[in-house]
Amino acid sequence: MRYNLLSNKKTTDLLAITQKRLATGKKVTSAIDNPNSFFTAANLENRSQDLSALLETMEQGAKTIETAATTLKSGEKLLQLLKASAIAGQENTTKKTTIDLNWLEDSNINMNKVATTKASLISKLNSAVAGETIYVFGDIDMGDEALTVKDGVKLAGIQTYLEEHGYDEDFDASNTGSLSFDMGSQFKSGVTMGNNSSLENLTLSMNTEYTGEDVAVVYINNKTGVKLRNLDVTLTSHRTNNQSAYIGAISSKINSVVEMSGTINIKASGGSVQGIFHNGYNNIPTLNITQGAIINIETTGNSSSALRFGNIYSQGTINIKTSGSLSHGIEHLNNNSLSGEIDIQVTGTYARGFRGNLNFLSTAKVFIESDWYTFEGTNSNISAGAIIGIKNSGQTSYEVYQSTTSNLLTGNINSLSGNSNFTSSTYSYDKFLEELKEGEKTHNIGTFEVVNPEASLAYNQLLEQYNMLISDSSYNGVNLLLNQNLQLFFNENRSSSLTIEGKDATAQGLGLEEVNWYGVEDVTITINQVDEAINKLRIFSENFSNTYSTISNRLSFTENLINILEEGSDKLTLADMNEESANMLALQVRQQLGINSLSLASEAANSILKLFS
What we know:
By secondary structure, the protein is an alpha/beta fold. The protein folds into three domains: 61 residues; 161 residues, CATH 1.20.1330.10; 327 residues. Helices cover 36% and strands 29% of the residues. Strand 31 and strand 32 form a beta hairpin. Helix 2 runs antiparallel to helix 7.
């Protein structure tokens, strides 16, 4: 019986263990069961749990990338719409053949710098500071009001604005800014220049009855750095008699330094008028004519001259036409270097082609019709190939000579016949006049394609929608398209990671901005910018796709690794349910047999007791 009791107790203990294994499904639930298996399985389970947490982060990171990629696809569609909008705007144009105030306002010019009346021009010039440009629009009658261009200020016609913004390739507005002066008998010039001041793309005209000197349409007195470019200057003097005092279209004196460029047309009429003039023999000013410049000077009147200046340095073309008694083409007072082309036509009693000491360093053509000295008081260098035509009193045609070599003309000359440095030439006066005409400046008002303002508005609205789309591309607080980065870790000790660098996919980041198209060229520039932006978005999409593939690969790897870890842990701790079930059945049979055996033993004892009863 004792043995049966002990055996039943062991069976009961085994049943308890088996029942626990069947209930928990594990054969190792604590270190008591199997220390080695328990702690090994715990480590495996801990790593599995850590990786499971990382798995969620990786999945969220993949969703962040997926959000950015989806946004980029939609963004590209919007950019395609932007391009289509720009192309439509390029086709939605109006032909402009004149410039008006609406044109100016639409072109984004600062209207505070545009003068359209006498009062506004005077006011704006008075308040202008160095570095500023005041634009003249339209025809402004200044009456007897004179103007002063202060130091460092530029006074220009609206053509300058076209040039500054690239509109001049299609539209010529060079004759839309003009100033007219009527000074009467007052001692007044039209425009007085300051140091480093500029005049350009203007038409200037002045009437004067003044009989003194030091009056000009453009007056420069003891100033340096003055620049004149693309001007039409007309001086009309009502003096008919010769005067000892001279006035000029452009007058400079006392150490002034003047630069001329572009095309400058000068016309001066009246007694003793000058085209470009320096009065006096002391403190001589300097005139620099730049390479490529074309200076056309025409003077009409007794004692008139085209170019009478101190120091003259020219690399441009000078075309001169003078007519009148005692008129002459060029007279210089000091140093000179005329390396550009010089064409001179002089007609009149006692007229002279040029006076003084001149250096013609390149091709010169001079035609003089006079009964006086063709060249007076000369000591001038004439370049090889120079053409000189002379027509004296009584002659019906010009005698034309060509210089065979560089040579020096000296003294007073009224004929080149017999000069060994010149040979008779077939070059004709008619040919000379034809070439002069070809050199005259002409104005061509072209046709300019102006984009409908509604096109810019439609483009800007689409651009705003694009920016909103990019701003909304956020997932879990991260927007990869707003230059925000995302870092993902792939293992439990954070030694393996990947940083997804964000991109600036905003309109500004792609080089796009709001537009205010004016010309078709503006739209073309925008279309090119949109094409570049689309290419950038496609590159962004490709980069994100590659990153997404990397993360997807790590996700699959981590999921498989978690399964392996869990499987390893289970092999160490999970019970074999088939085995445990069989054990349970065997133990139950053993327990029943033990109980029966104990019952038989008890009955045997009772049988023995009955023997004594």
